[in-house]
Structures are given as C-alpha cells and as structure tokens.
Amino acid sequence: MNHQSKSTITAMGTYVPDRILNNADLEKLVDTSDEWIVQRTGMRERRIAGKHEFVSDLATKAVEDMVRRYEVKITDVDMILFATSTPEYAFPSSASRVQANLGIPQTGVLDLNAACAGFTYGMQLADSLVTSGMYRKVLVIGAETLSKITDYTDRTTCVLFGDGAGAFLVERASDEGDFKSVISGTQGDGGMHLYKSGLSTEMHGQPLNAEGNLVQNGREVYKWAVRMVPEQLAELITRAEMSPEQIDWFVPHSANMRMIEAMCERGPIPLERTLTSMEYRGNTSAASIPLALQIAVDEGKLRHGQNVALFGFGGGLTYSGLVVRWGVPDRA
After folding, report:
1. Is the entire prediction scored with pTM above 0.90?
2. Which of 79, 193, 283, 328 has the most C-beta neighbours closer than 10 Å?
C-alpha cells in the first residue's frame, strides 16, 4: 500500500517552559533517587509550566519559534490541528486559543484527543486534508502541560512527566508528496492502564481514581508497547515499500528510555538510529516526538531529504505511525 501523498512538512518550532525540575528536586518530594530515576527511565530533567501558563500558551510560543526559525507565513493557515491531553478548557478548544493568540484570520480549528499518539494522528490527518485538496496549509501542534495533572506524591508517575510544545507546518507539495505510509490501531480494553478521569468515575465496571490526575499502570503499558511497536513499525515500513535500512531515523514517543531500548532490541531499527527527547524533557506525551525532532535538527543529525519513521503510542490504548521524507529545509 503505497500512499499517494501530495503534502510536505515545510517548517517546525518548539517551546519548553523555563522552570527545570531535576532528579535532585524530586528526591525532596518523594522517596526516590537520581540513580533510581536514571536507571529506570533515562530521565534527568523535565520542564514545568508556570501556574498561569497553559497549553495554548506553550503552543503559541512553539509556533512563534517556527516562524522565527524558518521565516514562514502563518496568516494563511487554513486549519489548526492541536493534539493535547491537557487542554485548559473542555471548550473552547486549545486550537481556537492559538488562533486568537496569533490572529490567524480564516482558519478551522480542531483539538485531537489521542494522548501520546496525538501528534502522529495529527500529522496523518494534516496529510490527508492537504492531499485531498480540501486545505493547502495545516498547522499541526502537539503540546502538553502534564505537570498540571501529575500527582507529586506518587513516586511511580511523578518522576516521568514534563511540559512542552511542538508546531509543524504541512503544506501542498510542488510535486510528489513526502508522506510514504501510515498505520494506526487501538486496544481499547486496555484503557484502564492509562487514564485521567472526567465525568465518569468507572470504566469497564471498575472504579477509577477520580481526582483528575493522570493514573498509569506502567508495567501493563510497558508490556503492551514493547510487544506492539516493533511489529507495527515493521508493517509501517513494509507499507512504505521500503526496507528498515532505508529509514534514517526512528522517532518513537519518548515514554521511557528503557522501553525504547527494549523495542529497539526487538527491531527492526536499532537504538543508534533512534531519536528521543526524554533525557532533559521527560515524557511530554503529544509533544515528545516534535521535541526529539527539534533536538536532532539542532544537533545536525536530521537532514532534509532523510526518511523518518514517527511512532506515537499511549492512552487508549492507541497507536499511530507514519513514514515521511523530511521536507524541512536545512538551516545554515
């Protein structure tokens, strides 16, 4: 199944809040240690949004960073897709807050709720909207303020999560498009393993922790992801009519370094061709893949024309991935 895309990624930008929460800070909050955290997660720092700094604020700054880096025009964006699990309101949407902040005159807005797979779903949707001819220029945002729904008395989850935002511009390509293949799927009966409660206080007849914080059964999520991602990644690459050797970079959701090492051991792409962001950003859910791509661009690893496999997975339990040729121009 070779996907006949007509779109390309033309620019990207990111933003993380100034405040750093490092492992030493966490040692003061819960019974943990720097050594324990690094050994089990590969994380050293995470960024934390201010009390009055919300997800649309982070996203707006990521778009401004994109405009500054690549000198692109955003006044003619005709759709904003915003992936987040931490919107400041049930409604209006976070996408509509970004529209207001940036004064984009004529644009559709839509929030996506797919947890850590949200950004990759957003990219799939952007490609399909542009390829269909419905829209010409789509802004895709993945942003989170997970610190606002983290229980800082729970030592199993509070060491993991951080805040950040990424913004991508997907536009009509001048010739052949850059999106090579897509994949997605869900194991909805695993929803109990990763959730934040809302209006209902039970799921599948089981009571939920209804405090409004993120709840995770890390062991079950780990088992699911480490088994599922290598299989689905191999299928994604096959659908692109490529071999694993033709993929320059694998960019999984930066959930946890040990999880990613275990995935890479099972193949099809080794750890040395894998890009992550969790060491100094923590797990930023929908923002983790954009942050990893930005780090790789800044380090000169990710170059125009390279083939990249992006793969998000998380709450739902759901996953989505895509193979894309990196269309963003290299900056001198």
Report:
1. yes
2. 283
